[in-house]
Amino acid sequence: MRVVLQRVRRGSVTVEGRVTGAVEQGFVALVGVTHGDTRADANLLANKTANLRVFEDDAGKMNRSALDVGAGVLVVSQFTLYADARKGRRPSFIDAAPPEIASPLVDDYAARLREQGVSRVEMGVFGAMMLVEILNEGPVTIILDTRDFTS
User: Fold this and answer.
1) Does residue 34 have an active-site annotation?
2) Active site residue 78
3) How high is the pLDDT of residue 149?
4) Catalytic residue among 80, 116, 146, 150
5) Is 141 a residue of the active site?
6) Which of the residues 6, 14, 78, 146 is marked catalytic?
7) Cis link prior to 139 (omega < 30° from 0)?
8) Rounded (10°) angle between helices 99-116 and 39-51
9) pTM listed for this prediction
10) What pairing do the DSSP bridges indicate for beta strands 62-64 and 131-145?
11) What's the whole-number average pLDDT of the chain?
12) Element (H, E) at 102
């Protein structure tokens, strides 16, 4: 399972002209699921997301977590995080898990964020054509992948 976290001043998702989720200070979490991912992967990434110290303290150092600053997280499913563009000009998406596997794990990631104590967890719409607005602050972009934590 893979999450691209962007620290944002604000982020939102619009589907068919309707805002389905929005956060102010916090993260936009672009979430990809691959074959073999489990609820344990979702839990691991939610824990990392909630506790990652990338928000500034009073001294201007990245020393505070989303939990520390009351940040929200906008969760957006993104199967293209598992694109393979090594051959040809059209990426392959065979490494992305099918929707019946991926959708519940994206939901589980969001649920685990709530359980961790994240004050506001908002969602995109799985499988929909979404307009995602991200006002990246810093810029700070962190890639978390469960394969990096389980060696």
Assistant:
1) no
2) yes
3) 87
4) 80
5) no
6) 78
7) yes
8) 40
9) 0.95
10) unpaired
11) 96
12) helix 99-116
**Helix, strand or coil, per DSSP, at residue 83:** coil
Q: Can you identify the CATH homologous superfamily of domain 2-146?
A: D-tyrosyl-tRNA(Tyr) deacylase (3.50.80.10)
Instruction: Work out the percent of the chain whose per-residue pLDDT is above 90.
Output: 97
Q: What angle do CA 75, 81, 85 make, to 5 degrees?
A: 165
Distances (CA, A) of 46 to 32, 53, 78: 13, 13, 16
Q: Is the pLDDT of residue 151 over 70?
A: no
27, 49, 55, 79: the active-site residue: 79
Tell whether the model's pLDDT for residue 85 goes beyond 60.
Answer: yes
The residue whose two tokens read 């004050």 is: 119
Task: Indicate the domain borders of the chain.
Answer: 2-146
Q: Is a pLDDT exceeding 70 seen at residue 72?
A: yes
